[in-house]
Task: inverse folding
């Protein structure tokens, strides 16, 4: 993700301390704002988000605790209480809030610096309440980090580029951005790879009546449909180069011109784009203009593959089953034995593959405790060919061995002797491995 | 001094001491970085905050004379 300075708000009516503390924080790389009253603090917190709030409790127009009551702490950063008037009551109140420290004046400068550095080291992650506000299902650290980033960026005008493998939830991330943005306009999605290149300009920018054969009426493009809202451009690298030039111009001027028209139409539209390609590789391959990339990626968010989200896979499977239960009026549940299988599978198709596997098991399994079998065929593993296997950090050795053995056997037409020779192991070891794989499958089915 | 008065006095003294220490921390950093102008500015802040401490301590001495908190030298004076 692009980096920006950490923002610190010092709320303290002692101007000398606030100025000195702010000076020290500025030298630590913080962007510092100061408020001497509750009213000033409220104003600043309403307009901007801060990563760290240093709050004095005794202020001219009230107690700093009032600020804790009225500020949406979930969307703000950490809070340090710095008080010259400590009491058991305020300390007790503080521990019920996301207060990271309760300091009594006079404080040691080295302690202040230590807290600032600690705040910078700790990447913000979303709490459970924030996760609930989004459609992204997960409790893992990668998901919490992404949600925290999305909620932080949502109210701004920053263009966001979402990257990640197919099925990782890029459109869901874009919807989360839109819903948390407070924008009044619509969320409109367009898959640039799914529209014939000849029609894409018209889809994007609209067209005037008679602008080309068949244009019997004026058409409003997605840019205008998403005015005051969010336009999600999926598979952005599939957009033809000449249209990328027009898109860049639209983004830079905030206006579009309909095909066949000559009037510039203002489009206050926030653009969120996505690709399952590496954007830098796409630039190198000539698929994505470099100038457009920089315009689209004020902020880049990478959606992690399901295999890197730990226990989220089990949580997601249960959520999918709950949804199916609601739809079909049943009370099925995930078989305990399935959890290990779900956690061990590579999930090349990510959440989409999981949803499909759960649905298949739900519909075909007559038991209340359903056993989810990941698809035996695993098409589309990025970078794999008939004679190569892709491994990633985090895979178990058992999975590595399983995949290598099965791929080698397939390559040699299930000839175990040839496979054993190629792998440098005995035929007996091949048999042992296959027996273990079969045993694992039986355990799951049991 | 009443309990409330003493509470407020202690609060003010903590604030003034805090401001003095924080200002001096900036002075040290500024001098380490060769920024004499900033150092001088915060020396002035430290002096002002130190003066607040002095006045507060003096106020305490005047309000509660002979309570054993003044220094032996001041008592003798």
Result:
């Amino acid at each position: 993700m692009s980096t920006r300075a950490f923002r610190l708000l010092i709320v303290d009516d002692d101007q000398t301390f606030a100025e000195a503390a702010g000076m020290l924080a500025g030298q630590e790389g913080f962007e510092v704002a100061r408020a001497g009253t509750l009213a000033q603090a409220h104003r600043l917190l309403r307009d901007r988000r801060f990563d760290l709030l240093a709050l004095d409790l005794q202020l001219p127009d009230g107690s700093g605790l009032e600020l804790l009551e009225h500020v949406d702490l979930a969307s703000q950063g950490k809070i340090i209480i710095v008080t010259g008037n400590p009491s058991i009551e305020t300390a007790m109140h503080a521990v019920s809030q996301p207060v990271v420290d309760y300091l009594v004046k006079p404080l040691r400068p080295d302690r202040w610096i230590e807290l600032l550095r600690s705040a910078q080291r700790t990447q913000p992650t979303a709490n459970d309440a924030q996760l609930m506000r989004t459609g992204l299902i997960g409790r893992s650290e990668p998901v919490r980090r992404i949600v925290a980033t999305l909620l932080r960026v949502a109210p701004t005008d920053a263009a966001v580029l979402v990257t990640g493998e197919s099925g990782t939830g890029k459109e869901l991330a874009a919807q989360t951005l839109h819903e948390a943005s407070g924008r009044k306009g619509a969320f409109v999605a367009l898959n640039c790879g799914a529209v014939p290149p000849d029609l894409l300009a018209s889809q994007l920018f609209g067209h005037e009546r008679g602008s080309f054969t068949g244009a019997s009426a004026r058409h409003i493009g997605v840019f205008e449909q998403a005015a005051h809202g969010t336009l999600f451009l999926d598979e952005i690298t599939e957009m033809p180069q000449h249209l990328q030039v027009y898109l860049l111009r639209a983004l830079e001027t905030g206006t579009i011109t309909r095909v066949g028209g000559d009037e510039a139409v203002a489009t206050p539209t926030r653009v969120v784009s996505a690709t399952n390609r590496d954007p830098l590789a796409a630039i190198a391959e000539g698929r994505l203009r470099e100038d457009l990339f920089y315009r689209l990626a004020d902020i880049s968010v990478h959606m992690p593959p399901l295999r890197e989200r730990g226990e989220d896979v089990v949580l997601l499977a249960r959520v999918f089953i709950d949804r199916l239960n609601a739809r079909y009026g049943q009370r099925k549940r995930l078989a305990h034995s399935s959890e290990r299988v779900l956690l061990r599978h590579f999930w090349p198709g990510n959440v989409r593959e999981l949803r499909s596997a759960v649905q298949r098991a739900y519909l075909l399994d007559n038991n209340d405790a359903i056993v989810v079998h990941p698809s035996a065929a695993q098409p589309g593993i990025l970078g794999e060919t008939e004679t190569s296997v892709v491994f990633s950090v985090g895979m178990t050795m058992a999975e590595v061995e399983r995949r290598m053995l099965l791929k080698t056997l397939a390559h040699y037409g299930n000839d175990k002797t040839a496979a054993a020779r190629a792998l440098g192991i005995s035929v007996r070891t091949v048999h042992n491995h296959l027996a273990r794989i079969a045993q694992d499958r039986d355990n799951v089915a049991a | 001094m009443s309990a409330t008065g003493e509470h407020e006095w202690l609060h003010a003294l903590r604030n003034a001491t805090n401001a003095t220490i924080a200002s001096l921390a900036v002075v040290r950093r500024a001098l380490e970085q060769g920024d004499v102008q900033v150092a001088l500015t915060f020396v002035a802040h430290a002096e002002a905050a130190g003066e607040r401490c002095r006045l507060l301590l003096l106020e305490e001495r005047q309000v509660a004379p002979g309570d054993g908190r003044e220094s032996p030298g001041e008592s003798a004076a």
Remarks:
- The CA atoms of residues 4 and 59 of chain B lie 15 Å apart.
- Chain B is about 80% helix and 0% strand.
- Helices of chain B lie at 3-32, 36-63, 72-76.
- Residues 65-77 of chain B have pLDDT under 50 and may be disordered.
